[in-house]
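Example record for the data management plan.
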Amino acid sequence: MRIRKWIGITGAAVLAVSIVGCNLNKPGATGASTKANDNKNSNSASSSSTSTTSSSNTPAPDIAGKYNVIGSNPDGGPYKGTLEVIAHGDVYQFRWNAGTQYDGVAVQNGNMVAVAYANGPDGKGCGVINYDIQSDGTLTGKWGYWGVNQAGSETANRTAGSDLVGEYEATGKNPDGKQYKATLKVEPAGNLHRFVWSNNTDGIGIKRGNNVAVGIGGSRCGFVTYEVKSDGMLDGIWGGSGTDKTGTEKATKQ
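Corresponding structural encoding:
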């Protein structure tokens, strides 16, 4: 596969973009797109939320390489294809071919990988945050944007609420080293969570154990959370805005 040039995005910062997730279905095995419906998906984010442990003290495994993928759309329809994971400094580029091409940016935090992606040959404008949830409720994470090789960081201290839902005071650092502050509100959204920052920035997150992956970057961007298994397989849950239904994906290295 010929790799598309990784094009930088100037001025990208987590607190400078208005962001929501999107609802992107992957094509089925026949190559025809499936459409999400209103039926509950048994493979929802909540079904895996108790099986994943914190990634804060887990050495980060090497995820770069080529994979075969099988998965299910939120409506239960199956799909299969290939995935290439390419290292770019602090982040990864994810390139799928599952009947349709998808491209995204990923941030790894121990054995957890968070991805934001879009249809087409690039994921320009998509971003992602990968948080660990600490025992006191503090969120500590890394974030990145498609096309930017450096990752940012953010710590959000909870000031109200319980579990993940609540209000936070966030401080962070942009890839250029500049620091920022903001307030953050996390709201339940069915099986998912909505993240709203004080500058009209928002995203959709999937919680798995003590980790939460938040997709950002506009209505064209979907999001995935992967757990890296001991054999290197990526065990994923993915979704978008407008519904709390999720799809699943397993990626096995070639």
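Summary line stored alongside the record: Confidence is low (pLDDT under 50) at residues 1-24, 28-51.
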